[in-house]
TrEMBL record:
Ligates lysine onto the cytidine present at position 34 of the AUA codon-specific tRNA(Ile) that contains the anticodon CAU, in an ATP-dependent manner. Cytidine is converted to lysidine, thus changing the amino acid specificity of the tRNA from methionine to isoleucine. It is found in: Cytoplasm. It catalyses: cytidine(34) in tRNA(Ile2) + L-lysine + ATP = lysidine(34) in tRNA(Ile2) + AMP + diphosphate + H(+). Residues 26-221 form the tRNA(Ile)-lysidine/2-thiocytidine synthase N-terminal domain. This is tRNA(Ile)-lysidine synthase. It comes from Planctomicrobium piriforme.
Length: 349
């Protein structure tokens, strides 16, 4: 690396300035791949001007025989940059998957592989704990514009709602004192590779990133190239615009939904919540569904299993009074009584 800032560092500085981040302890998640290595080097370029106190964190999922070599490589990289490095590793008692695996997660001969979501939970658990121990207020991860494109397309294929179409947010509160940031989200992977080449910096390549049994890899290596070649050469930009518009609209709907709840909620108990139906009469159904979803979350009831159809039926109960009763996931019962709608959770669930 030289003492001159790179175009990547300039883009990083703009992103951090927009997030009002300076003079702060910052944990950098580094896998050793091109994206995270570029993130680390770019942040090192800025640590003096922005007074950043950097710490590297690497989590070894221990799924490959040579995975410890990756951890050692990251540790040596951090040492060369004079950045402290914390290495975590999946313990033998940590199951690599929380539930029976589908064929998507089985390798050749039926060998089991870690599902992406399970791996993510273990990794982020380590990152949260490390950030707490190191006193870091921010956790930086290396998602790029390419990751955004792939995520939005994946959500479309899964039938996600408006919130899912918004893709990856540039920042998110993980805990009261820890914020996840994605300062590379507007940069393409090709931009990062160019910066690494200019720095003459090597990086690691995870062989599982090209294995097509993973949905994300099939989207990246098969579906997106076909869409670019046969349907729209600018499909990436189109998906980015869709994410921005969906995110903006979702934010507006959430704001209206919170205002609606303030007026409509009559009584809240740990196992029940009651609404004044009159407050919903003239509201758009999208706002009503979002208000119901927010109310459910505020009750700390499990969100899993509560789908679009449940929320749509509840919206109909609020506006039309029909159906008068509805059974919902996790033992929650909905009932209309005149101008009231009550959601009550059975104590047995």
């Amino acid at each position: 690396m030289t003492n001159d800032k790179s175009p990547l560092s300039d883009a990083l500085q703009s992103a951090l300035t927009a997030l009002h981040i300076q003079d702060a302890p910052l944990l950098v998640a580094v896998s050793g791949g091109a994206d995270s290595v570029a993130l680390l080097l770019g942040l090192c370029d800025l640590r003096e001007s922005l007074r950043l106190q950097l710490t590297v964190a690497h989590f070894d999922h221990a799924l490959r025989a040579d995975s410890a070599e990756d951890a050692q490589w990251v540790s040596q990289l951090a040492a060369g940059l004079r950045v402290p490095c914390i290495i975590g590793r999946r313990e033998a008692g940590d199951a690599p998957h929380p539930r029976p695996l589908s064929s998507e997660y089985r390798g050749e001969g039926g060998s089991e592989m870690m599902p992406e979501e399970s791996a993510r939970k273990l990794r982020y658990g380590f990152l949260r704990q490390t950030a707490k121990e190191q006193g870091c207020r921010y956790l930086a991860v290396a998602h790029t514009a390419d990751d955004q494109t792939e995520t939005v397309l994946h959500h479309i294929l899964r039938g996600s709602g408006l919130k899912g179409l918004g893709g990856i947010p540039p920042q998110r509160e993980l805990d009261a004192d820890l914020t996840l940031i994605r300062p590379l989200l507007k940069l393409r992977r090709a931009d990062l590779l160019s910066a690494l080449a200019a720095w003459d910096q090597t990086f690691l390549t995870d062989p599982t990133n090209v294995e097509l049994q993973y949905t994300r890899n099939r989207i990246r290596h098969d579906l997106l190239p076909k869409l670019r070649a046969e349907f729209n050469p600018k499909v990436d930009e189109a998906l980015e615009r869709l994410a921005i518009q969906a995110s903006d609209q979702q934010a507006a709907i959430e704001q209206l939904a919170r205002q609606l709840l303030q007026k409509a909620v009559i009584d809240v108990q740990p196992d029940s919540i009651r609404f004044n139906r009159n407050e919903f009469a003239t509201m758009p159904v999208a706002v009503i569904r979002e208000a119901l979803s927010l109310a459910w979350q505020q009750q700390s009831w499990p969100r899993q299993g509560l789908g679009f159809q449940h929320l749509d039926h509840l919206a109909s109960m609020l506006v039309n009074g029909t159906p008068t009763k509805l059974s919902l996931p996790h033992g929650v019962e909905a009932a209309c009584r005149g101008n009231l709608l009550e959601l009550r959770k059975s104590k047995r669930n």
